[in-house]
Amino acid sequence: MSNLEMSTKHLLGIKYITKEDIDLIFQTADNFKEVINRPIKKVPSLRDITVANLFFENSTRTRISFELAEKRLSADTVNFSAASSSLKKGETLLDTVNNILSMKVDMIVMRHPAPGAHAFLSKHVDVNIINAGDGTHEHPTQALLDAFSMREKLGDLKGKKVVIVGDILHSRVALSNIFCLKKLGAEVMVCGPPTLIPKHIQELGVELSYNINEALEWCDIANVLRIQLERQNIKYIPSLREYSMYYGIRKSMLDNLKKDILIMHPGPINRGVELSSDVADSEQSIILDQVENGVAVRMAVLYLLAGKRNLAKN
């Protein structure tokens, strides 16, 4: 493994790490991808580290991916789930975390409904914190595994064209992806209904289209987001059927393009809404690669931050 180290002791968001950090995570993930494809998939790298997985918001895919990454690294894990309703206040969050830290935990992986909860916590506790999603703000490891998956298929992402399609307004994945792809030199476009595109999004240096066919013609990769009905307290689209008609991607649309593009989705997919099944299961789809790469990328993040922790102790 590399002797290089991250520039920060936490992963609070892509906004707060450098391109060099991203490159280091990818190099380390390349090594771990070899590990998880061996018959014996474990390494003892984090044998003396205890990781607490704190999920104040429902999650299946991300939580399982982190747990698997921790087990592959031989870490001890503590899992904590809580309904977000009783833990909306910072003080309560701090009390909860301090109780868990009294069990001598070294690292925290946390998902929380409040944007900025991780940054708040990082100022009050002396452990490495990894953001597994904070409200509609950031989801850094998803962006890292997305970019890692793109790089695996297309090489260097400098100059590559990536369109992010769908519910940009409510998506922490979109924001982290934009930060990550821009740092890696990719060109980024967002595409979706006007009601689901944040105002001033172009100030982040992205292009904007409301036309899905135009966006697909432009891009090398389409990263298609889930319509997040659970985050929408008012109706932003008339119906899922209407959304699907105007922004759903069907196989005939890909067949009409003069080139092959890659299709990605952070999951879970609303089949027949964002993607038709024949697109989700097509050879152009790298959705299952994303899932596999998620474990390797999260192993890399845990390993590098644990190294940062050990350096601080010495």
3D architecture notes:
This protein has helices spanning about 20-35, 60-70, 90-100, 115-120, 140-155, 170-185, 210-220, 240-245, 250-255, 275-280, 285-314; strands at about 50-55, 75-80, 105-110, 130-135, 160-165, 185-190, 205-210, 220-225, 260-265. By secondary structure, it is an alpha/beta fold. The protein folds into 2 domains: about 15-140 and about 290-314, Rossmann fold (3-Layer(aba) Sandwich), CATH 3.40.50; about 140-285, Rossmann fold. The chain has a 5-stranded parallel beta sheet, with helices on both faces. Strands 2-1-3-4 form a 4-stranded parallel beta sheet. Helix 1 crosses helix 11 (about 285-314). It starts with 18 loop residues before the first helix and ends with a helix.
Provide a brief overview of the structure.
With 314 residues, the chain is α/β, with parallel strands linked by helices. 40% of the residues lie in helices and 14% in strands. It has eleven helices and nine strands.
Give the DSSP E fraction (strand runs of 2 or more residues): 5-15%
Q: Which class best fits the helix and strand makeup?
A: alpha/beta
Overall tally of structural domains: 2
CATH topology of the largest domain: Rossmann fold
Distance between the termini: 19 Å
The amount of helix comes to: 40-55%
- Contiguous helical run count: 11
Q: Give me the CATH superfamily of the largest domain.
A: Aspartate/ornithine carbamoyltransferase
Note poorly predicted spans.
none
> Spatial order of the strands in the main sheet?
7-6-5-8-9
The helix-strand sequence is HEHEHEHEHEHEEHEHHEHH
